[in-house]
Every structure is written in structure tokens, then in C-alpha cells.
Amino acid sequence: MDAALLSAPARTADSAAASTALLTDRYELTMLQAALRSGAARRRSVFEVFTRRLPEGRRYGVTAGTGRVLDAVEAFRFTTPQLDWLSDQQVVDEPTLAWLADYRFGGDIRGYGEGECYFPGSPVLVVEGSFAEAVILETLILSILNYDSAIAAAASRMSAAAGTRPLIEMGARRAHEQAAVSAARAAYVAGFSATSDLQAGFQYGLPTTGTSAHAFTLLHDSERDAFTAQVESMGRRTTLLIDTYDLAEAVRTAIEVAGPELGAVRIDSGDLLMLAHRVRRQLDDLGAEKTRITVTSDLDEYAIAALGTAPVDGYGVGTSLVTGSGQPTCSMVYKLVARASSDAPDAPLVPVAKRSAGAKSSRGGRKWGARRLDAEGVADAEVVGTGPVPAELADRQLQIPLVRGGEVVGREPLAAARERHIRSREQLPMSATQLSKGDPVIPTEYVTG
Amino acid sequence: MDAALLSAPARTADSAAASTALLTDRYELTMLQAALRSGAARRRSVFEVFTRRLPEGRRYGVTAGTGRVLDAVEAFRFTTPQLDWLSDQQVVDEPTLAWLADYRFGGDIRGYGEGECYFPGSPVLVVEGSFAEAVILETLILSILNYDSAIAAAASRMSAAAGTRPLIEMGARRAHEQAAVSAARAAYVAGFSATSDLQAGFQYGLPTTGTSAHAFTLLHDSERDAFTAQVESMGRRTTLLIDTYDLAEAVRTAIEVAGPELGAVRIDSGDLLMLAHRVRRQLDDLGAEKTRITVTSDLDEYAIAALGTAPVDGYGVGTSLVTGSGQPTCSMVYKLVARASSDAPDAPLVPVAKRSAGAKSSRGGRKWGARRLDAEGVADAEVVGTGPVPAELADRQLQIPLVRGGEVVGREPLAAARERHIRSREQLPMSATQLSKGDPVIPTEYVTG
User: Which residues form the Nicotinate phosphoribosyltransferase N-terminal domain (chains A, B) (predicted)?
Assistant: First the structure.
């Protein structure tokens, strides 16, 4: 693959260049208006993205979408048609519209590096600025992190189950068309090798792959005609889809048409474990020992693991990847955790937290996160704290600077996020990648500074 | 609400105007290349969108996204940067690139009207044209219909459970930021009244709503300060969020600040059934009999149904709506069901179908769908057929013309889709809206013409 293409900044897609400012819940703007009027809008504020729990049974989470957040914050500018619409609809008043017209985030963002594992309470992202400039980013930041991290968490389980065999993301048809592009990106961060989605290739430089569907075989008068047409067009190293009619006959025809140099065959239905063995034997008998077998039918991490001993050379994963394998979103929230004690410009920050009964309480204060390792270098706790970082955790901090004074400073190639994820996952206890339901693989400990 | 805003064509968003051509699986283009080379690309072809089954336990499906499909097909044009990238990456060869540069869909599309209920085997969309022009729309059409229909199906269950009480869509933060906009649109089709998502208001004219979050209360030095700021900014008819600290105290403060004219209070945590009764009593005791109660904490169709006897005036639904309430995608597929018998320009269509073992077989032939009613006007079967439509079903046909010779003819106001959904659901047997798991509420019968 082309490593240069994976360097930042990402190739800008038509849609990525558009304003992101209205991808926002209305209440962000009405709160802004009320706070501008009360004067509290200027109070320095710290918002934190965290999750109270992992999805049921999951042993770790995966931070993803951080790079997209940076692009989206930069593109958070209100255009004239948007402002006119907000005015027409009386969403906010004139002073607020004037404020929005000049909006540009000027604060600071720190966060877990993209690809980093996270746990309940991990301060995955910390946004600091005036209340006004920080509050209106809530919806957009959560949309991105909640979706991308859900996909990455599923992808990570699949890539752990697949071991060294390559995984191809091919779920575009089972997800919203724009979400699919982000899903391909998140899957790459968590270990997938390629995607079927061309926009993900165009926009993020991901390797793309794909050859043909059943329709191509059915279009032709015979399977032989179809295979011949494909090999003439794409060469003998192509992948032929062999389950339109009869599998054994298709394998025979495929090798007759392409010769034993045929790149791969793809099986998209049936009992994949049994069929993979049967097709492998047949290919070997025909002298096509190097022809690979790709399987692509409703796979998830469990099916991938179950095929571990089958003679399969690669997996294509669709539905279960783009829907987070049963967990299509995360429960990340964006909470005010500290704010200036008064409207005075130099007022100190004070921690704040929702205190009502129920499960939605939160811990106040600006937080850092660190992963403590044991003597063997294996993670044994997620340590989350306010105040100074203990000396023994100084080099185990997980937040990195992403935006400083409104300028993006944390952009990185997608390959760096992918490498970070592999390193982060490898440092977890072995049981992290067990597929059975379990608790978070390390506990979260709180340190108050 | 502003009905004019819901008229077609939808206000074009920045992102909607962009080319949709690369929101496509790579294999669509490689199949195209091979078919152009073999000559089969010119064969007249009929592709059908259908689903083999409903999500587990669901009693009906809801067609949604049709209007978005029409926009997306119109925007399916390859730009020069896209073509250059396809060339650089050697995705397809030069003759294929030249063909793509001139691409514009020139065929016909018929389909179920947006909002119409569907069942296993319903021919939800039928795309007819040359193989080349029709095959490359597969991924994009499925992305849209699978996502939007999944959201609409969940929304329909929720709106049936809510009865006449209004539902607000507020799931943007739990979905990909662009998917969220489409989710708001699909929810509206299936009975929701409004959305928190400003882009959905801007782009599709949906009513938007929202006032404040816990952060707004925490920002101020006291709850009273926050309520006062909000009422000063938004007036007494606003909705105050009352569960940041102590609910009873918040209700007292709210009425002291806003008076009994207060529009509504919102409860976002805790035992909503119990709290709604308690808050209602307190409001009534304070003379605020007309102050409404909105609840918004992790609601789904079951929770909504359970609150049916509670003194609740409206529901806000987030996560479960945008994730399809456990079914975040549909299993719609896009299958070649008929194609010209040869490369001759006037060759007749012949049905085709995948025949291998396993669950993925399909029925060949260009199909129509009709809903048969019993003597009481209640649906008793989904009738799917090839050939002529039986006279008794002539006025019960479900497909309408959407595109003719490449021109969109089926655009309609979103309100029309919403009305169609209500009519369609009302015609189903009563058990359709039972929330318990069940079989499709009517059987699908096949008629071969």
C-alpha cells in the first residue's frame, strides 16, 4: 500500500470541506444565547468526553475518530445561508447570530491518541475554552467519537480474532453512505487491511479492493463466459466468485480459465468452514496451491475465530463491522467538569458535577489519564486523576495535545493511529482479546490531586 | 410547522450537492470494466432491491430513504479529481474511465413509495437500464435504503407506542454526524414530530427543538441563576431541565422564576414513571397545571409504552432511535433478476437467479408488489408477482414511478411520505404494532405471470 497517501492532511473530499456547524443540536445554540445574555458565556470552562461504562461484556474500548474531530472543528464555521436560516427560523436572536458569524474555536483540546484503548472514566477528550466556544462543539464531537469508536472496538475484536490473516472492510451497503466512509477509516485504525469503499480510498488513502459480485456471473450466458470476461479484464491474479451455481464446477472452470496462477477464489455463502476445506483440496488437486481463498458471508469476530483452523487466507466483513457487532454506538458523553468561579476574567476554575440521583452523575475537575504497567510491562490499571500527575505515571500519560489556542497541533497520519492501537492492545492483559463477555480488563482508579 | 419547507425539492446542503459517485464499492467499477470489455455491459438489466427477511421479531418494515436515493442518483457524476484518483490508483482502465466521465443514469426506477410498509420479498425498488448504468448504483442505493429504513422501522414502533404524544428525535450525538441527519428525516417519515438536529431542519425543513442541558445549569452559580438566565433569554414558554440537583427543589425554583406559565419541564434521569407522577402533582399544587412534562432518558419503544399511563406530554428519543432499536440496518440486497438474453439490442429479458445452496438464493424476474385487503379493508397479504398484475390488485399496487429515462419523476414533499406511512400502517392488522417479537404480520404470496 501507498504509505504516503496515509499521511496527513487527508485528501479533502467534497463533503469534508463543507461547514460542519449545523451538525449540532439546537439546544447548544439556545444555551449559548442564554449564556451570552447572562454573561456566563465568557466563563472559562472545561468539558470532558468520557464513558461511564463499556458496552455490555466488552473488555476494552478503542478511541477512534480523533483525526476527524480535528477536521470537523476546523470546519465549524457558520456560512451565510446557515445564519440566514437560523435567523428565519428564530432559533437564536441577533446578538447570538452576530457571535456565531465570527465563530472560530480558539481554545485547547487534549485527548487520547487515536487508536488508544480506553476504559470507563477515561478522559478521552478534554475541551477547554470559554463556555460559549466549547459548548457548541458537543454534538459534533460526540457524533464522531461515538460512531467511530464503536466501529473501531468491533474491528479490534475482529482483527485480534483474525491474527495475521488480512481483513477487508466491505460494509458500505449496510451503513449510511457517509458513515460507511468513516467506518472504513475506523476499521483501518483497528487493524483492517483494506476497504471496498472507494470514497474511503479517495478521502483517507486507504487501500481499496474488490472484483465482482453474483450479478456479473448472472449477466453472462455462462459462468465460464463470466470468468473469462473477468480474467481478460483483470488478469489471472484476480479473485473469482465461485458460489453462484455449483461450487465444485466453478472451481474447475475457474482454474481452466485462469490457470493455476489464479489469485484467489471467494466464497460468499454456505458453511464456510466445510466449504473452505473442500475448495482448498480441490484447488490443490488442480495444482493451484497458491490460489488463495477469501470468505465473505455474514462474518463477525466469532465466525472469524471459528474459521481459525480453516484454510482461509482472508476475510471480508460487512454488516457486523459497520454496526459495531451488536454495539453500534458508544455511550460517550460531553460533560462540563470545571468552570470559572465567577464572571471575572481571571477567576479560578472550580470543579462542577451533576448531583441528582440516578446513574448519570459525574466527577468534577479537569482530568488526566494514565495507564499503569506492572513489572512485566502489562497494563494493570487505568489511572484517572485531577491535579498533578504522580511521578511514576509521568511517562504513561495518555492524553496528547490536539488543539492549542484554536490551532490544530495533533494531526497525524492514519498509520500512526493504527500503530498506536496495536501497541496499546498488546500492552493489555491477554484476556483483553477473549471474545466472551467480561468486565473491563483493567480497573479504573481515581486519584485526586 | 412550516409545510412549505417540507415541499420538494429539499434545500440543498453543502454536503448533499457533492458528487455521490465514490460512495461505491470498488467491485462495481471492476465489474463494469470487465463487462464493458466483454460487451455484456450493454445488456438491458433489471435489478431489484428486496429483503429476504425482516429483522428478528419485527412484524413489518418501513421503506425510507427513497427521496434521498433520487437526490443521490442525480448527484452520481464523476468529477475530474475523482477520475484522476481512479486512474492513479489503477482501479479501472482508460476505456472505463472515459465511460465514467460521461456517466449519467438514463434508465428507469420504480419503487415502493417512501413510508410504505414492506415485507420479506417486497420489490421495494426496481432499477432498469443497461447493466453498466444500473450495476454501479448498487452500493449507494443500498446504503441509503438500509440505513433509513432501519431507522424508520424503529421510529414507527415508537410512534405507535406514543400514540398522540409527540416524539422528538435527539440522537445526533449517538450516530455518525451525517447519518444523524438522515435519521432525523427517516424518523419524521415514521411519525416523529421534530428533531434536535439543526442540519435536518436546514436541509429537509424538519421542525427543530431544544433548550438546554445540564452544563447550562452547572455553568451558573446556582440553579436559580441558570433558570433565570434561560427564562430571560427564551421566555416563560421555554422548557427547563430539572434534574441537575434536586428535582423537587428545581420544580419549586422553576415556577418561582417562570411562574405557572412555564412551558415545560424536562426530566432526563431516574425512574421516569415515578418522577413524572411526582412532578405532575407538584406542578399542579403550584398552580402550573398547563406546564408540560417531557422525558428524555434512554427511551425506546418499550419504555415509551410503559409510560403510557404516566402524566407525560412528550418524549425525546436518542440512542435507540438512531441505532434502529437493536436493528441498526436492514438486510436489503440489490440483485440482478432479469437481463437481455443476448448482446443484441432488442434481445428479450430473461429471468436470472443465484442457484447455489444456502440461504442466499433469489427469485428471478421483474416484479411488482401489491397489498391485498380483506373485506374490512385490512391487509391480508403482500402479493409479489411477475407478469401482468391480476385485475383485483390493479389499484393495490405499491410501486410508483421514481425515475423515467434518467429524469426524476417521483420527488414528493416529505409530508407525503409521512402520510403514506400512517395510512399504510393503519391498514395492517392490529397486531402489527404489538411490540413483542412476532412474525411478519401478513404473509408474502408469489404469483407467477
Answer: 22-146
